[in-house]
Write a structure and sequence with these properties.
By secondary structure, the chain is mostly beta strands. It has two domains: 143 residues, Alpha-Beta Horseshoe (Leucine-rich repeat, LRR (right-handed beta-alpha superhelix)), CATH 3.80.10; 97 residues, no CATH class. The protein has a five-stranded parallel beta sheet. Strand 8 and strand 9 form a beta hairpin.
C-alpha cells in the first residue's frame, strides 16, 4: 500500500519554517509566545505550531528549551524523536501522522496532555516516565493486544478488544479463550459476529447462563458464553460453542478502565 508521502514532497523542519511558525503566532497575538515588540529568541518561545506541513522528521526542536506546547498534527511523521531537551513540555499533539511506536518521551516528565490519535501504533509502551499525564488520546490506531491496556490503567478509558477465531478442523469445535483484565476494569458489552449475524450478549445469573449455553450445544446450535474464571477473579473466559468447520467468528468486548 502506498503511503501518503509517496504522492507528496516531504518537508524538513528548517530554520525558515521555524521562524515563520513563530512569527505567525506573534502576528495572531498568541499570548504564550514572545511579545511582538521583543526580538525573536527561540529559547523564550513557549508555544509552537507545525501542523499541516508534510513534516517527515522531528528535528531542530532543541532550540526551544522553554517550550510548553507543541502541535505537530496532520503531518507524515513516522517516529517520535528530537524531544530530549523539551523538559518543560506539558502539551503535545502528534495526531494524524504515521507513527508506529511510542518512544522518545522519556524526558517529558512534565507532560500532562498527549495526543497520538490516528497513527499506526500497535502497542502502548514506553510511557512509565509520564507520571503527570492526565489526558491521553490513542484512538484510531492499530492496537489489538489486550496486554497494552496495562499502560493506561491510571486513566478512565473505554477500551475495545477484537479477536477472531477460525475453525480449521473438519468438525464442529468448542473454542475456549482465557484472558486477564485489570483489577479496576469492568466489561460492559460482548458481541459475537458470524457470517452476517450479530449476537449481543445479555447479562444473566451465572448458573442460568451456563445452563442455556449447555442446552444450546446439546441441541446443535451455536452458543457464546463470557464469564469470570472461578479460579481467578482477574481472568475471564469466552466459550464459543459449535463453531462449524471453515467458519470464522469475530467477537469484541468493551470494557471501562478507571
Amino acid at each position: 500500500m502506498a503511503r501518503l508521502y509517496d504522492a507528496i514532497e516531504p518537508e524538513v523542519i528548517s530554520m525558515s519554517m521555524l521562524q515563520h511558525a513563530v512569527e505567525s503566532l506573534r502576528a495572531d497575538g498568541e499570548n504564550l509566545v514572545v511579545p511582538k515588540d521583543e526580538k525573536l529568541n527561540y529559547g523564550e518561545v513557549s508555544v509552537l505550531r507545525l501542523d499541516f506541513r508534510n513534516i517527515l522528521r522531528m528535528e531542530n526542536l532543541w532550540l526551544f528549551t522553554n517550550l510548553t506546547k507543541l502541535q505537530m498534527d496532520n503531518n507524515i511523521i513516522e517516529r517520535i524523536e528530537g524531544l530530549d531537551t523539551l523538559h518543560k513540555l506539558t502539551w503535545l499533539d502528534l495526531s494524524f501522522n504515521n507513527i508506529t511506536r511510542i518512544e522518545g518521551l522519556d524526558s517529558l516528565t512534565e507532560l500532562t496532555d498527549l495526543s497520538l490519535y490516528n497513527n499506526r501504533i500497535t502497542a502502548i509502551e514506553n510511557m512509565d516516565s509520564l507520571k503527570k499525564l492526565n489526558v491521553f488520546s490513542i484512538g484510531n490506531n492499530q492496537i489489538d493486544d489486550e496486554n497494552s491496556v496495562i499502560y493506561i490503567r491510571s486513566f478512565a478509558a473505554d477500551v475495545t478488544i477484537r479477536q477472531i477465531f477460525r475453525n480449521d478442523e473438519d468438525k464442529p469445535i468448542e473454542a475456549v479463550y482465557c484472558f486477564p483484565i485489570e483489577e479496576q476494569a469492568a466489561i460492559y458489552s460482548f458481541i459475537a459476529r458470524i457470517d452476517d449475524r450479530e449476537i449481543v450478549a445479555q447479562l444473566k445469573e451465572k448458573k442460568e447462563a451456563q445452563q442455556e449455553y449447555t442446552d444450546a450445544l446439546q441441541q446443535g446450535h451455536g452458543a457464546y458464553l463470557l464469564e469470570k474464571d472461578e479460579k481467578s477473579q482477574d481472568n475471564f473466559i469466552i466459550n464459543i460453542g459449535a463453531l462449524l468447520p471453515g467458519k470464522e467468528c469475530i467477537f469484541q468486548y468493551h470494557m471501562f478502565l478507571n
